[in-house]
Specification:
This protein is an alpha/beta fold. The protein is 24% helix and 10% strand.
Amino acid sequence: MRKGLTLLETLVVIGIIAVLVGLLLPAIHKVRESAHLVESFNNLKQISLGLHHLAETNMGKLPGSVRGERPYQQDTLVELLPYLESGNLYKSFVGQVLWTPPLNFLKMQVPTYINPLDASQDYPNATIGWNIPPSQLSVSSYALNAQFFAFYPRLNKIRDGMSQTIWLTEHYGWNCNETTFIYTIGTASRWKPIQTPTFAHGGPVDGRPPPGDYYPITSGNPPKSVAAGGKTFQVTPTVIDCDPRLPNATISRGLQIGLADGSVRILSPSTSPETFWGMVTPASGEVIPFE
């Protein structure tokens, strides 16, 4: 008759299994992150292609990141909905030029606007005061470059070249230091608790950026080096340390960016402020030395 396992043998087997699980977990995490990154890249591509199609149907002109100027009545990401298979949502906005939309406008989440790597969705912003689940809130995990989109631009106004200009980045959409980025709200007076999904505003808190090139979160022109306090973007900050004025990378490898030509890249954390803000500003003729 065969003996059963002794207690010692059982503990050894459990220990081996625990070691194997410990070895497998990082690999599983890496595979999951890679799959989410592919999905996020696809989202950025869809948004970029949609922007090009939107411009083609309007003689090269794009909507701005604020409301109220014809021929567009809504923000960029709202006007883009029909080009992302969300035409029914867009119809809900037709004719609405309200600065503060009805509550149901805040419950229109679009899958393409959600970065699966955006961990801030696990930390809803408690300060906004709405009883709306994060899974329904009209959040965008992708931010438009306000240096370009605030002025109802035309594609031929990107004088630096479309392959040299960032028009989309990622950021923490649900909670970035108690700021939530809602794409259905045309404007907001403060960073907290609600703001439009944009970055690179001209002022430190409020308002549109001034015309021309401007380095928003740095002192001086050209911007300071990182060592001297210049800023580019944050890499995997906590929601408490998150800066809503800057893009927020969701992976340690760097920041996901969408260029105006429709291409998608990961920008290294070692990117200099000169290079980063040269890619953000669309009009100074910088030739970007990609790192």
